[in-house]
Each structure stands twice: as structure tokens, then as C-alpha cells.
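Milestone M4 deliverable, item 7.
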Amino acid sequence: MFLVWLWAKKVKNAGVVDVFWALNFPVITIITSFLSEGFETRKFLICGMFLIAELRLGLHLWQRVIGHLNEEEGRYKQLRKEWGDKADRNFFFFFQFQAISNVLLAIPFFIITANPLTQISILEYTGIGIWVIAFIGEMIADNQLAAFKKDPKNKGKVCDTGLWYYSRHPNYFFEWLTWMAYFIFALATPWGILAIISPAIILYLLLKVTGVPNNEEQNLRSKPAAYKKYQETTSSFFPWGKKDGRGKR
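Output delivered:
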């Protein structure tokens, strides 16, 4: 992440941190799978799930950020503006925090891949089932938003169709659900309860730090009237939250 920071400083685009935050996880997963001594089938399952999910996210972010490298995302532009001449220094610490979070969030994988038990439990199968739902949900949400933004007719409008009709951040919700799946999978392993740290950290980051708050602030700056109306009629995160008469919730 230090090298990524140097690159971000050179191209003046801190948004690259999102791409490499996601792509760091496959690296951690591959290293862990080779060094751990747990049951091979279990290692194959959990590492396969994690690689597929994070590579998909990383490639999606790559297209969104690296594909428009000369245009920094609004939330990072705002941080750069607020930090002024301290922006490079603050972004350095921000990037290092992301690296630390990579390791903390990988705790479920350290625990699961060390499990020597040779039987896959119902909790692990349940975790796989939830993961499939979360993976498909996040992929659909990302594709729906990307398609909406590509249509020039939607310039200045808010995406409120598909999964975005039920939540302002369905992609974040399904990302968190993915980590809940890993936690449930880990519960079949001794000390697996410690894996709760991952969905807890993700939920905190999404709701309080780099997810929902920054995203909503940026949307309110770019399309205030439309987004305020959208906020009044949709749930912020969980798709079963407050709705207006349209959603009957």
C-alpha cells in the first residue's frame, strides 16, 4: 500500500486505494492457503469463495477507477480539498490504515484454514449458501448502477431502480453480507467466534467511515434536490428499512 500511495501521489488520484484494498485480499488468501495446515477441502472452499468475491470486486473497481485515472472520485476530491497541503501526508496514513484493515479482516481465513477437522459442517454449508446470495446480489447491484451511469439520459439523476429501489446502498449491504457468510462459515471452527471482528469492522466502516457517509455527502453535493428526495423514500443500508407508500414498508 506504500507503493500504491506513491503511485496515487504521482497521478493525483487517491481512488486507486479502493482497487488495491480489494486486490490485497487474494494475495493474503493465496499466502494463507499455502502456509496453513488445515483440511484441504475446507481450504479450497473458503479460499475459492474469497478469491472469486474479491477478484470480482477488484476488477469492477479497476474498470471504474483505473479506467478513468485522470478523474478522481468526488469523495477523494473533497478530502483533498479539506486537507489542503496536508493531503499527501494524510492519504499516506489513510492507505496504511487500509493495509491494516486487510489483515484484520482476514482473521476468519486464518482461523478457518487452520481447522484440521475432516467433515464439512452444516454451519459451513450455510455460510456457502449465504455467500452465494451475497455475491450475486452485489454483482447485480454493481451492474445496475454501472448501466444507469452509462446512459447519458440519466445525467444528474439518481439510480432508484432494481435493487437501488429498496436501498440506497445495496452494493454495500451485500458486501457486508458476504463477510457475515465468512463469519458463519468460521463458527464451525474452534475459536471461530473471533471471526465476528470482520463483519463488525466492515459494518462500522460502511456505515460510519468510508462507505455510506462519504457516498451520500458526494451525492448531495452533485445532485442535492434529487438525492434528498431519494433519501426520504429509501432505506440507507438495509433493504427492509423505511419506505414510502410505493414500497409498502
